[in-house]
Amino acid sequence: MYTYGRISVVSFFILLICTGFGPNAANAETLPPEDQPSLRLSMSGAFQPFSTTDINGNLVGFDADMARELAKQMGYAPELVQNDWAGIQAGLQTGKYDLICGSMAITPQRLEKMLFSLPYYVSGAQIFARRGLGALRGSRIAVTEDSTYARYIESHPEQFPEVEIYTFGSEAEIVAAMNTDKIDAFVSDRIVGGFYIKKGAAGDIEPWGDLLYREAVGIAARPDSAALIRQVNQALLALVQNGTYEKIYRKWVGNAPDVEILFAAWGDYAQFIPGPENSNRPEVNERKPGFANNLSTMLPLLARGAMLTLLLSIVTAITALGTGALIGIGTVARHTLLRRLSNAFIWVVRGTPLLVQLFMAYFALATAINRLLGFEAVGAMGAAFIALIVNTTAYNAETLRGGINAVDRGQWDAAASIGMTRGKILRRIILPQAFRDSLPSLGNNLVVLIKDTSLVGAITLIELTYVARNVVFQTGQAFLPFLCAAGFYLVIISLVTIGVKSWEARLLRSRKALGETI
Questions:
Q1: Within-domain flag for 283
Q2: Which residue, 4, 74, 145, 217, has fewest beta-carbon neighbours within 10 Å?
Q3: What CATH number does the domain containing 346 carry?
Q4: Are 133 and 194 in the same domain?
Q5: How many domains does the chain divide into?
Q6: CB of 482 within 8 A of CB of 421?
């Protein structure tokens, strides 16, 4: 165990208390509100051994344990948020969480947009290749999207001659690609690659060549959070001094941290660090959590994700049926402006991807509403409902518009001839027929909706597909988790299809019975 009463290693001393690194640090003093019960820290959950999910779906790993201990040291209750790496910076900037504790390398480009704590570990970029790979020329190399590794390859083409570059959403997906012969090598963190080698999850691979570069990893915050970053720095120093940092590092990495390299990285950011005595040593649970590595442990996790998928689908389907009917009626309205607005709504929504609509609802609309009200009124779930309802409404409206137009014009004229108003004609004669004739297409819209809920993972909701991805990240198995998820979807959609067809048959019987009566 390391103890640090007086430490003088390679200019290790930093100014934890008075320095945040990034834009406008000197003028930024924002702390979380005094009544805020928790500190929200985000990570991808797809970067073993730093962040992944356990058998209960909880975030675990080096980053997760550090996040919890740092928050406790700072006097907050930790609240961990899983977010896709591609959207993790946007979530921070729009206030979805307070900090990113997700193995984010400190780079000049990121320092222009965010504040960073002092490094909490130092690693480096390493090429890992199939054993026996002689040269990189002409090989297939994978990197994670929007990573420093991807940018390094782009800026150093001479080191990667004639290679094919593949980008993936996570290291686990890269490992799956290695196991299925989709790639020959990949660039990753040396610790992460070493973890997969020890685990044997990526086949017969080995480090190829020297480190491409060394990088320091820090905790990121918004530019107005310098005081919060100083708290993080003080907490980090305390964890290093009281031995908690080493316990967590050993637990997940498997060996003691190289503190001299860590202190040298600290020295790159400042000249002095106070070293107060701290005899309090918080207990760290050194027992690693269980992981869903077989069918019996996967199914409960997937079932939990399926419940969220069902909730999103049911609420959206019921709401969008009503809103779709209103917009559909609007498309045949006599009022020109109403008709044009209804058609424009359908055109815009159907012409843009649902994923873009989810991002707009979460990062733009929800953020604007929350800032206007001064509290979080619309969270990830609310944003997901908004986007899904808007999207499904457009498709239902277009379906019902076709159903309304398919009703014979003579029925409008006959009803009008006996004195019925246009509204009464729509309500009693046209819409019932339009709905009956549109039911198969509305059922198809519902099936599409159920599958579209798989996109809400991009805004931090852990539904069925995202749970399957998490299990892949835990275990490295690319086939079984997705096969099980496909089974859940098949059961849900089969039940929906049976229900819609039964309803359709019932309406058909009613129509035949009415015809026989007449």
A1: no
A2: 145
A3: 1.10.3720.10
A4: yes
A5: 3
A6: no
Q: Which helix (H) or strand (E) holds 391?
A: helix 380-406
State the distance between the two ends of the chain, measured CA to CA, in whole angstroms: 91
Last residue of a domain, one of 253, 270, 287: 270
Find the helix or strand (DSSP H, E) in which 111 lies: helix 108-111
Token match 């490295």: residue?
476
DSSP output for 93-109: HTTS-SEEEEEEE--HH
Nearest to 186 by CA among 196, 175, 197: 175
Taking only the tens place, the pLDDT of each residue in 346-372 is 999 999 999 999 989 988 898 889 889
The dihedral built from the CA positions of residue 154, 455, 57 and 375, taken in this order, carries a sign that is positive
Nearest-angstrom CA–CA distance, 173 and 179? 10
* Residue 181 host element (H or E): none
Q: Judge if 435 and 383 occupy the same domain.
A: yes
In angstroms, the CA 497 to CA 484 distance is: 20
Residue 172 lies in a domain: yes
Pairing of strands 115-116, 121-130: unpaired
User: Are residues 220 and 356 both part of a single domain?
Assistant: no
Residue ending a domain, choose from 270, 287, 307: 270
List pLDDT tens digits, range 68-88: 999 999 999 999 999 888 778
Which has more pLDDT, 54 or 509? Answer: 54
Rounded to the nearest angstrom, the gap between the alpha carbon of residue 80 and the centroid of all alpha carbons in its chain is 13
User: Identity (one letter) of the amino acid at 31?
Assistant: L
Tens digits of residue pLDDT in 444-478: 999 999 999 999 988 878 888 888 887 776 666 66
Helix (H, G, I), strand (E, B) or coil at 388: helix
d(C-alpha 105, C-alpha 125), whole Å:
11
Cis peptide before 257 (omega within 30 of 0): no
Domain with 59, as residue range(s), is 7-122+215-270
